[in-house]
Amino acid sequence: MVAVNALSQNKSAGINISAWNKVATQPNDSSQTSYFNLGLYSSMNQLNGIGLNIIASTVNKNVNGIQISSIANTAKGSMRGLQIAGITNINGNKMAGVSVSGLTNIIGHDAYGVAISGMINIIGSQSSALTIAGLMNISGDNTSGVHISGLSNLSSSTFNGVMIGGLLNIGGKDFNGVQVSALANIVASEMCGLQIGIANYTTTGKGVQLGIVNYYREQFDGLQLGIVNINPDTKTQMMLYGGNNTKFNVAVRFKNQLFYNIIGAGLYPYEIKKGFSGALQYRAGMWKQLYKNLSLSGDLGYQHIEGFKANDCPSRLYSLQARLNLEYQLTSRFGLFATGGYGINRFYNKNATFEKKPIFEAGIILF
User: Cβ distance 52 to 36 under 8 Å?
Assistant: First the structure.
């Protein structure tokens, strides 16, 4: 008797043919469940089956099955299955399955499965999913999985997994896994894993930072591999020096406990009356204190030489250099150094050497 009563309450045998909202073979009330829906725009109580609509579909409770519309799908409760919409999918509670939209996927709470959108995926709470967005992925608490976006990935709390962003990845709290971006990776609290980008930042962590500029604010157990590596122990120093390689140079040295990096610019030694020439240089090396204020260091360097209008200089060269440096710190903010080394200057546009010569330099260190 109960079974017969339930079937009699579910109108049209659960088949909802809808022209527009309330114009349908099945009423939209709390006693109805749709098993098959076909329409222009449909509004239903519950969908357990397949829903196909030309414009949009709205389900007041849950979707268990397939929901496809050319513009928008809405499940005010949870969706378990497959959603495809030309513009937007909205799930008020959970999504477990696959959600694909042309512009936006919005999931109010938890997401498990796959979310793909042309622009933005937004997940309000926990998720364990593969999310792919043309612009941005935004997730809330305790996120895990793989997030891939053309612009950025943002997680407000803990993230476990992989972030691949076209420009930016941000972990609002702890991050465990891999961050890869073309511009910057940021972790507000603790990072355990790998960061690859132009700039990498974390407060604390362990793992590897691989980029042009790497920075951690408090403590890090691992490796910083970059052109500039900065941490609380880094001393930033100005260097003024000259020699037979470049007449006058201004450089900044980022000196850590064992390694250092130098970025600088100088005037290349061609006569002023013959034209102007300059050089940009980068060096990376290691240093060791020998005795009190005396230290020894060695580095390898790359130098770009721009000839400009110097008559006796090629328009453009590059130089590979190796140096040994002896440094004496007179005070905590002032030191002297002398350098000996060797450099090879080569052409960019042909496999030929312009000159080889020893390098002799000396100068002062400030700060």
Answer: no
359 part of a folded domain: yes
- Number of domains composing the chain: 2
Cα-to-chain-centroid distance, residue 4: 58
Secondary structure of 64-119 in the HEC alphabet? Answer: EEEEEECCEEEECCCEEEEEEECCEEEECCCEEEEEEECCEEEECCCEEEEEEECC
141 neighbors 158 (Cβ within 8 angstroms): yes
Segment 266-307, tens digit of pLDDT: 886 654 445 557 889 999 999 999 988 999 999 999 999 887
Helix, strand or coil, per DSSP, at residue 210: strand
Residue 243: which domain range?
A: 235-366
The residue count of the chain comes to: 367
Domain boundary (230, 265, 284) is at: 230
Q: What is the pTM of this model?
A: 0.80
End-to-end distance of the chain based on CA atoms, in angstroms? 90
On whether both 360 and 221 belong to a single domain, the answer is: no
With CA atoms as reference, report the closest residue to 70 among 93, 96, 42, 112: 42
Residues 244 and 186 in one domain: no
How far, in Å, are 52, 163, 197, 205, 255 from residue 219 at the CA level?
A: 55, 23, 20, 7, 17
Residues in a beta bridge with 191? 175, 205
* Main-chain dihedrals φ then ψ at residue 225, nearest 5 degrees: -115, 100
Give yes or no: residues 208 and 146 share one domain: yes
- pLDDT tens string 211-258: 999 999 998 898 889 889 999 889 999 999 998 888 889 999 999 888
248, 233 contact by CB (below 8 A): no
CA–CA separation, 90 and 79 (whole Å): 9
Nearest-CA neighbor of 208 among 235, 229, 188?
229
